[in-house]
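Give me structure tokens for this 461-residue protein.
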Amino acid sequence: MKINPIHIIGGGLAGSEAAWQLAESGIHVVLHEMRPNRNTQAHKSSNLAELVCSNSFRSDDTYFNAVGLLHEEMRRLNSLIMLSADSNKVPAGGALAVDRDDFSQQVSKTLINHPMVTLDYNEITTLPDDWEQVIIATGPLTSPALTDEIIKLTGEKNLAFFDAIAPIIQINSIDFDIAWYQSRYDKAGPGGNGKDYINCPLSKEQFEGFIDNLIQGDKVDFKDWEKSTPYFEGCLPIEVMAERGRETLRFGPMKPIGLTNPNTGKRSHAVVQLRQDNALGTLYNMVGFQTKLKYGAQETIFRTIPGLNNAEFSRLGGIHRNTFINSPRLLDSTLRLKKSPRFRFAGQITGVEGYVESSAIGLLAGKFAAAEKLNKSFDLKSIRPPETTAHGALLSYITEGAKAETFQPMNINFGLLPAANENSLTNIPKKLRKKEKRKLISERALFDLGLWKTTYQNFLN
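Here you go.
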């Protein structure tokens, strides 16, 4: 056993990436992965970084897709996950897809053969007091024993649940000739001004058609091993509420009371409200619209809501078994647990969605842990990537940019990156076509990433 190694629990994408970043910095790592000694319901092999769902890392378009931008940033930060993906890619049009077996085998072989990495295939059921630094990178299939330990550590009540997630919409795709800003009864809550929600009105006929579509829409089925998992805090999908009575939603999330449509001067039959979801004000979630409708059905049905005809979804709704902590409340700006800073969290458990996003947070956790290990004058602000980068935007969302009260998992998207930032040399003009704007945001992100990479390396030296 190496002296004072950093322990990483979980050999998935995030844990493997974190281990690589630390090992490449010359730091001893013990990577704990319980498979194959203890398997899960979803994994099929004993390889590290096994892809249990799709074999796609989604779009590889650097300049016009936020996921593709994150790919490129990871490549420039010496990502093992991206190196292995690029080495084992298969034809997939504009997407980056891989041979899943060859991909995970390469990740495994690379880490097993690294002189600074020790693999431990025993299940971790307790968190030893003598581990100096720990990165917890277990995903949605965290073992029950470790789940209990994390609950004790964080003070969370529960980690495994069905989270019925509400869709999130980019504000610049909302039609404000129809929608309007207003809080119910014009009430200004903490930090509000009485115009804190975006409201989309429905007539009686539009509401009745909407309810029909909800009830008839294609829905996701549960897997057998998921059926005993409860809903998150008892929240019900909107289509389940609609099935309980056609007026249920009109007395729940779609109630029109306290709201006056400025285009008619009257109360609408029903109203869909959108609430700000990030500090930048670029993303709004559909209040109370958690759903288990399939993605295609969601886009079709929700775009029938007046004002949302051309809605761009940064995240569609969903319902699945998940395991994540309330990162904005629990973690500091370098992914450390505020109440016990020797623990960091990485990957899907922090509240990011997707292979690439989980890997990116693992990459940052590894770099932050390396900086803390190698430089005792640890300065949090100096080693955070700027929020004008995809990495920085994703990190900001899960640590301080999202509202802890409504926090839900998120994919990377352009809505997370600011148009203006005082720490960037380049700000993005407001009046641009979407494609032009995205290209400028991506170019700025890569430029700022280069500056941060140099700053980070200087900090280590």
